[in-house]
């Protein structure tokens, strides 16, 4: 193998080494990975006529209506002894409609149309695959390629429901151009309402999309869309990979949601879970053909001990067909604009990140602990997506810091566009939990916000869904806790806890937005300081929806301070849209003063000044600036409409003098953003 690696050329590997010469030591690893990718692409060309055809397998597997209205059924069940189709269409006869066995574990069945030439299976009727195992068992299964599944009210198990509407929704709005500055609104359809129930796609379209547009976000990351039998899994235990969750409505209503988002200039990413699958058998992929493998590795490799779920066999041809076609399906059928890949750390390593601290030593990212099957799958997925859809956006959820994760495949990278800056929210929670305000380490905060691999784009965020889950709480609740229940009225003076919380909530967001990455993410409701935490109905909370909702009614009450935080978040995004700091090179930090608790940095011809001191304000404070000239305040967290104290005169013009300019910075706990007027 070593000789073969020596003959492999990674086309643009020199570009990667220019950015990070230390990776030269691991050149053989990069060559081997790239060689494995090229072998896969060659095999796809030889066996399937290329990846374009291969990734359209959702048009041949599952159930397909033919031009003459006959129905063609196809499954992969290599360990099965026999397959039958049953359902409403044949009175649930278990033996009348057998599949025919084909090569490579495939099974096929053709149902001719009825006498009136309509399809044999009606739209919105139930089906099941009956699997006979070699051990003589009879199993009832849902097709892995099912496009719609539903659960009757009293039932625990989901049903495969044939989806073939007479007049399907046609999306009319073109995909927006790929944003240069990515401002992501992470959202969950089911919780997107103040009411204690599962909210709908239609509610999201009508009531939440206009808010997202108003707030200045240009991208939505939709969680929990892929069907999951257990609502409280937050959408991370997938049972039907091709089905949009029916608990929020129909496939057509999701298509309309995406279409309307596109009409607003907003791109939509799917939170895709290809890192593992639910252990459910009757309505999941597990034991589909009666074996302990099929789509997964046999145990123990095929089981995730912490997540209690199954792990895919990424070296299997049919698993590649299934997962790559799944990505293509969401892009083509629903017209998503890209993906946030969940659980990438678990995929990259045989240890799944369990018990690994990831010190940053490069030896942790190469060698036998790396699962090259899944790593090459991710390279293949990114290569195919970006070839077929040049504007496609892919984001990796990786905590390990794998080098070249967000560099092009041609350089030997994994091909993602962005990675999530997962250390940033952890740092904010740690600071608020453990430190007094006067003990904040300004250098450490700055380091955390700027510590990222050069040339690999990051999505910065102060908090996401992870931080809001039960057992933790939102940043606003860490800052203000029970005071939020009684003291958020703007009709009464702010007490010290509310004052501190309101100011720090804005400052933490702005410094994360300005310094932390090349994209920014906010979780639904947190933009206005959503109180409490997130908890889905389950046995432990008496099946309550009380914490599984977003209280938009709070922001709609003018006399509550939530609308002030909302206004700041909106104007922060709109200011970024004007100056484009997320698309600019990383910031130059000109000051991080421990005693004064001041941070100053330049980015995109904008100067950011933060005073985190709990009680010390400054006058005539000198700060360095890159561009000489005249400066004016463009965003000020201390403005009254943002819940501030209005201590700065926005009419003041600030002039540079001999490489410095003076700033009259009155307010403790405030942030201002200046732009030069040349």
UniProtKB/TrEMBL annotation:
<dbReference type="GO" id="GO:0003844">
    <property type="term" value="F:1,4-alpha-glucan branching enzyme activity"/>
</dbReference>
<dbReference type="Pfam" id="PF02806">
    <property type="entry name" value="Alpha-amylase_C"/>
</dbReference>
<protein>
    <recommendedName>
        <fullName>1,4-alpha-glucan branching enzyme</fullName>
        <ecNumber>2.4.1.18</ecNumber>
    </recommendedName>
</protein>
<dbReference type="GO" id="GO:0043169">
    <property type="term" value="F:cation binding"/>
</dbReference>
<dbReference type="GO" id="GO:0005737">
    <property type="term" value="C:cytoplasm"/>
</dbReference>
<keyword id="KW-0328">Glycosyltransferase</keyword>
<dbReference type="GO" id="GO:0004553">
    <property type="term" value="F:hydrolase activity, hydrolyzing O-glycosyl compounds"/>
</dbReference>
<dbReference type="InterPro" id="IPR014756">
    <property type="entry name" value="Ig_E-set"/>
</dbReference>
<dbReference type="Pfam" id="PF02922">
    <property type="entry name" value="CBM_48"/>
</dbReference>
<dbReference type="InterPro" id="IPR037439">
    <property type="entry name" value="Branching_enzy"/>
</dbReference>
<dbReference type="InterPro" id="IPR004193">
    <property type="entry name" value="Glyco_hydro_13_N"/>
</dbReference>
<feature type="active site" description="Nucleophile">
    <location>
        <position position="342"/>
    </location>
</feature>
<dbReference type="InterPro" id="IPR017853">
    <property type="entry name" value="GH"/>
</dbReference>
<dbReference type="InterPro" id="IPR013780">
    <property type="entry name" value="Glyco_hydro_b"/>
</dbReference>
<feature type="active site" description="Proton donor">
    <location>
        <position position="397"/>
    </location>
</feature>
<keyword id="KW-0808">Transferase</keyword>
<dbReference type="InterPro" id="IPR006048">
    <property type="entry name" value="A-amylase/branching_C"/>
</dbReference>
<comment type="similarity">
    <text>Belongs to the glycosyl hydrolase 13 family. GlgB subfamily.</text>
</comment>
<feature type="domain" description="Glycosyl hydrolase family 13 catalytic">
    <location>
        <begin position="179"/>
        <end position="561"/>
    </location>
</feature>
<dbReference type="InterPro" id="IPR013783">
    <property type="entry name" value="Ig-like_fold"/>
</dbReference>
<dbReference type="GO" id="GO:0005978">
    <property type="term" value="P:glycogen biosynthetic process"/>
</dbReference>
<dbReference type="Pfam" id="PF00128">
    <property type="entry name" value="Alpha-amylase"/>
</dbReference>
<comment type="pathway">
    <text>Glycan biosynthesis.</text>
</comment>
<dbReference type="InterPro" id="IPR006047">
    <property type="entry name" value="GH13_cat_dom"/>
</dbReference>
<dbReference type="GO" id="GO:0007399">
    <property type="term" value="P:nervous system development"/>
</dbReference>
């Amino acid at each position: 193998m070593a000789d073969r690696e020596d003959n492999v050329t990674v086309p643009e590997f020199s570009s990667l080494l220019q950015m990070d010469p230390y990776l030269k030591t691991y050149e053989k690893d990069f060559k081997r990975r790239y060689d494995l990718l090229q072998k896969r692409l060659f095999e796809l060309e030889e066996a399937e006529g290329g990846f374009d055809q291969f990734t359209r397998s959702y048009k041949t597997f599952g159930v397909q209506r033919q031009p003459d209205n006959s129905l063609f059924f196809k499954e992969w069940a290599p360990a099965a002894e026999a397959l039958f189709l049953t359902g409403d269409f044949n009175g649930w006869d278990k033996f009348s409609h057998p599949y025919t066995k084909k090569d490579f574990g495939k099974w096929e069945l053709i149902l001719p149309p009825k006498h009136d030439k309509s399809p044999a299976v009606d739209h919105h009727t139930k089906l099941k695959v009956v699997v006979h195992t070699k051990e003589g068992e009879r199993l009832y299964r849902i097709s892995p390629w099912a496009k719609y599944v539903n659960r009757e009210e009293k039932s625990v198990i989901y049903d495969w429901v044939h989806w073939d509407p007479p007049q399907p929704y046609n999306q009319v709005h073109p995909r927006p151009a790929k944003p240069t500055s990515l401002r992501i609104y992470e959202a969950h359809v089911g919780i997107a309402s103040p009411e204690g129930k599962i909210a709908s796609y239609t509610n999201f379209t009508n009531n939440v999309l206009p808010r997202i547009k108003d707030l200045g976000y240009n991208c939505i990351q939709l969680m929990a869309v892929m069907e999951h039998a257990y609502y409280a899994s937050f959408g991370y235990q997938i049972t039907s990979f091709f089905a949009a969750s029916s608990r929020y409505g129909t496939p057509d209503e999701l298509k309309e949601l995406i279409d309307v988002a596109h009409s607003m200039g907003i791109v939509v990413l799917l939170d895709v879970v290809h890192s593992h699958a639910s252990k459910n058998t009757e309505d999941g992929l597990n034991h589909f053909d009666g074996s302990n493998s099929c789509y997964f590795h046999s145990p123990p490799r095929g089981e995730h001990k912490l997540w209690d779920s199954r792990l895919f066999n990424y070296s299997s041809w049919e698993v590649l067909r299934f997962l790559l076609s799944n990505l293509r399906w969401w892009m083509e059928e629903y017209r998503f604009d890209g993906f946030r890949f969940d659980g990438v750390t678990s995929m990259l390593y045989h240890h799944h990140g369990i018990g690994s601290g990831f010190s940053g030593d490069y030896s942790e990212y190469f060698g036998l602990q790396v699962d090259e099957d899944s790593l090459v799958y991710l390279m293949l997925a990114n290569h195919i997506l970006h070839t077929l859809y040049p504007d496609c956006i892919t984001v990796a959820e990786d905590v390990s810091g794998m080098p070249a994760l967000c560099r092009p495949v041609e350089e030997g990278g994994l091909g993602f566009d962005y990675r999530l800056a997962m250390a940033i929210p952890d740092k904010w929670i740690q600071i608020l939990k453990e430190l007094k305000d006067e003990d904040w380490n300004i250098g450490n905060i700055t380091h955390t916000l700027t510590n990222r691999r050069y040339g690999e784009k990051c999505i910065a965020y102060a908090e996401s869904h992870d931080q809001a889950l039960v057992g933790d709480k939102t940043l606003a609740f860490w800052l203000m806790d029970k005071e939020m229940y009684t003291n958020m009225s703007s009709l009464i003076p702010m007490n010290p806890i509310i004052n501190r919380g309101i100011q720090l909530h804005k400052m933490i967001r702005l410094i994360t937005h300005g310094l932390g990455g090349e994209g920014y993410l906010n979780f639904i409701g947190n933009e206005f300081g959503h109180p409490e935490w997130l908890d889905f109905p389950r046995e432990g909370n008496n099946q309550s929806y009380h914490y599984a909702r977003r209280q938009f009614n709070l922001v709609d009450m003018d006399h509550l301070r939530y609308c002030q935080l909302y206004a700041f978040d909106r104007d922060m995004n709109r200011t970024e849209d004007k100056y484009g700091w997320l698309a600019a090179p990383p910031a130059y930090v000109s000051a991080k003063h421990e005693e004064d608790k001041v941070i100053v940095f330049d980015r995109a011809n904008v100067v950011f000044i933060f005073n985190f001191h709990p009680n010390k304000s400054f006058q005539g404070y000198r700060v360095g600036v890159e561009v000489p000239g005249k400066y004016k305040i463009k965003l000020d967290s201390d403005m009254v409409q943002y819940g501030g104290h209005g201590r700065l005169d926005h009419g003041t013009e600030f002039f540079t003098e001999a490489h410095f300019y003076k700033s009259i910075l009155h307010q403790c706990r405030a942030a201002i953003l200046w732009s030069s007027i040349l």
